[in-house]
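Researcher: First entry.
Model:
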Amino acid sequence: MKQITLGILAHVDGGKTTLSESLLYNTGKIKALGRVDHKNTYLDNFSMERERGITIFSKQAVFEYGDTTFTLLDTPGHVDFSTEMERTLQVLDYAILIVSGSEGVQGHTETLWKLLRKYEIPTFIFVNKMDMPRTNKEFSSENMRVCLGDGIVDFSLEKPDYEQIAMCDEQALEYYMEHDTLTDEILCSLVQNRQLFPCYYGSALNNKGVMELLEGICRYSYEPVYSDDFGAKVYKITKDSAGNRLTHMKITGGSLNVRDEVKGISNGEEWAQKVNDIRIYSGEKYSLVQTVNAGEICAVAGLEETYSGQGLGCESETEEPDLKPVLSYSVLLPKGCNVNQVYQQLKELEEEDPTLNLRWNEETSEIHVRVMGPIQIELLKTQIQERFGIEVSFGTGKILYKETILNTVEGVGHFEPLRHYAEVHLLLEPGEPGSGITFESKADSNSLSRNWQRLIMTHLAEREHRGVLTGAPVTDIHFTLIAGKAHLKHTEGGDFRQATYRAVRQGLKKAESVLLEPYYDFVLDISSEQVGRAMTDLGNMNGHMNPPQIVGEKTRLTGYAPVSEIGDYQIQVNEYSHGKGTLTLKYKGYAPCHNQEQVIEEKGYDSEKDMRNPTGSVFCTHGAGFYVPWDEVEQYMHVKTDLKSNQSFDVVPKISEEIRPKKEKDTYATDQELMAIFEKTFGPVRRKRYQEKRSSVYEKQKKPVYRKKGPNLPSCLLVDGYNIIFAWEELKTLAAKNIDAARDKLLDMLSNYQGYTGTTVIAVFDAYNVKRHKETIYRHQNVYVVFTKEAESADIYIAKTTHQLASKYKITVATSDALEQLIIMGHGALRMSAMNFYEEYQRVEKEISGYLNQKNQLGNYVVSEDELLNG
């Protein structure tokens, strides 16, 4: 039999669920017609769906008619649940779009039409509610032609208008001119290619025109052709009443059996898991099967790493959905509620609806979710209460702003701490509204290899880049990689990540930025005596209105307005129209903010204080890195670009005396300099604030992770580098092969230790036998590294430093040199043997792993590894 996956889409209250009931009844799947107003429909089985009379979750039912097996997917029509509907589109073979015979093409209907075009889904049209007064085909036909375009042809007649159909395609027209008819094969092809949209008229409630629609779908549809290799498209994740995680998917190639091993990639890591069982759902009930074949829709238990939109086997990923939330709400928990536990529970809901985009706001210590509207908030309240037994409330919804640029600029990013190197030049150009972020490379492969170029493209795409006005995500920008530079020895992948991010931010600082906010298209139907009040309200909302239209006994106002202003206007409409006025909102997209200066002032964002998104670059001279502000970066860049000739060439950067680091002879750290290091970079205020924030995220600890004893002095750890290397077996083995590699390994280990404990770490290495060597100090990530001058050993340097600073700082020295231990004890410093330090390091590593495991359970927003290790 032919296998077809068929979806039903409509504006809210268009009659989707009623049409589904009629199809199931006429094909013998159900024995009695359910009704939305009677709260007994076959597919709307969730309590809130029956109470409100709307579809919230897409449901499936399987039925047969003629030689065709249908998997019917009923999708939500309310705009608040548009994302659930869009996720379903990716698995449809054909769709039924319902148009109201009484209302005509409504706002959300046009959105659905655009999405059907985007996903290239062949579509049949059912004009519903034709039994209502003042409905006629002529009005509906003209209304659809104006709003949806050509290709919609009445198929409810005994014989379709072949001449009108033939106008859709040249080859069809030639055939019609020769034969005065068109074959079913030609009609199937036109429907498949979305050149023809058969239209049927009727009433789903009164079961009129439904069978003609079904027969037309059977007659004018093809069965898709599938690959023999296994492929599947994941479109939804749910949990059943027993808590089992279900992956809803369509098999798009080959077959899938129980106990088969399925492979995939999630968060950049490959996984392989076995299928425990396969379910074919129809309404609330399901049947267990051993095998599903290409074209079938099923729910699979046993796969724990899947996500909506994922392609398995030979199937590709689905592109990002068009419809995204525009409001952000804070989740307000009852007293005594464990925020970590609730967050993990909410992650289950985020799996089912990825657009919730669960976030932890460190500044306010709140969980935030993104939604489409207030009805979705009510759903979340119900779900959280029913599933987890928690009564939550939500704060006031906040608008999700975005930023873009109005002019073309070049952004430069350079990242060159010691033994690292990368430089990136990007051209930032304004994109078309709604285009999002696009990018390409025009860099010369002779100057920058293709591998590095591809890596830069990856870094551009891997995150949301923040704007410089309010820190909102940027959009509608086209990035072009025009030049870059790598070092043969020192460049690593992470260096280009840093250089790319900095190039984006430096370009944004140079550009003319503008704040964007979301807008709704609105359709407001009210009585004529209320038009003045409505037009005044919409004007005060900064709405843009078209001339009023008379539609029946009402006046219709159309236009668009900011979501922030018109989002809850329906409440006022209900009040002054006594419940007779209707407001329909359709997401329009982002446009310039109507009150930009006010929003920027309220946000209070300072791009220069956003340390996670630096605008400047890091350069290196005399063995030390130094920071260059964004407006001075171009004076130091190593590559010069000529946009007119599309060429780039190396230049010798000019280092000014004001920013140039100290000369080598001046690099010894004095008391004042060490004090500056402690207070500026690792001061007690910063550590205290970090610990307070961490305690608001993680469960409260019984005692601090790192406890100080004695006077409340800043802590400093001096490490005798080579002594430790030859005392720790792992490093000693490495040093036998490559002493430089062992030294770098130790510095990386010390970096982790410093980042977690907050102790300033200074690693000292002998340069005792190096002729004419001058004392040098540089920074390896967050660790200070000292190479002593000629004829000065590490123990002499450490002894001198402890003598100078012991009264001001709590100093510990890690070494196994017995004489050195005696000297430092005499200076009042604490000693730690190499083995004791190794045990301390292992303890810290274990605690870091514990926090990172907890972070992975809670989600990436809580604390990143960089945040944890860098304080």
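Researcher: Second entry.
Model:
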Amino acid sequence: MKCPKCGAEIAFYDLKANCRHCGVNILYYTQDYELERDAKMTELDNAAARMVVAKIKASFIGSLLAIVRMILIVGSICAMMIPFCSVTYKLPFYEEKLSEGLIGLIQSFRNGLLMSLLSFFKSSLFSKATLGAAIVLVIFALIAVIDVVMLLIYLLSFLKPDKMTKIIRNASVAACALSLIAQIAAFVCKAAIVPQNAYTAFSVGFGGAACFVLHLVLIFIENKMLKKGVEPVYREFDPKRKELRKKIKKGEVDLDDLPLPIFESEDEHAQRMKEFEQAMEEEAAAELEAQIGAEAKAKEEEEANTQ
């Protein structure tokens, strides 16, 4: 074993708390050294964590545009609950309705109607209406996939705010175009593909129009954010602390060679000195209170002895 201060060899049977060569207390010297290293790493780790929080804040609630974007992305998924179109199948003692919105499709899946569409293609009575429903359903599914992917990208947008914003904008353009196509396809199916008869009824919903409007506004918001830039607000010196942290982990910089604190702005220095002065005042007040108490106790003992 070596002395942590002077490096002299200490025999294993030497149980003294102090080094025979330099007199330093081995236990407390090591504790101070480790505490200093921990304090330095804590400063760097906290800076990295604050930068992540700053990115999350900038991406989600850092500005009015970011808040509106969040509402529109969630709203575009909620808008898909509005039916894009509806098909009603009618026979004696039988009637089913396929509503092509999120809620309607879930219900149709649960009652088995959605799985029966393939067999309806073979029916001379239902084939035309089923074809129209299938055309809109395919476009609806593409929009749903894009919206889900866009939501996932949005949730990870704090990793690379500007790049993710551009991806969301491009996804919104695709979803906007598909929403318009779905709305037009619904009108075309009703007018030209699905004949009006006693066995089927095809009605147009406005889910496609709602999704189109929301995605169009979202494109405008994304373009505004790209023009303005999604810039997180970092605390002074935090980027330098993060870079230094990487160098320490790679072994390019020795933590022991750095001062404590490593970086300190004027505001941080003022705050640290204020906390230090407050702690010293509290310690002085506690010592004064203890001294007064000791004097009072001594006086009481003296008076008791005189009596």
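Model: Note on the second entry: DSSP finds nine helices and three strands in the chain.
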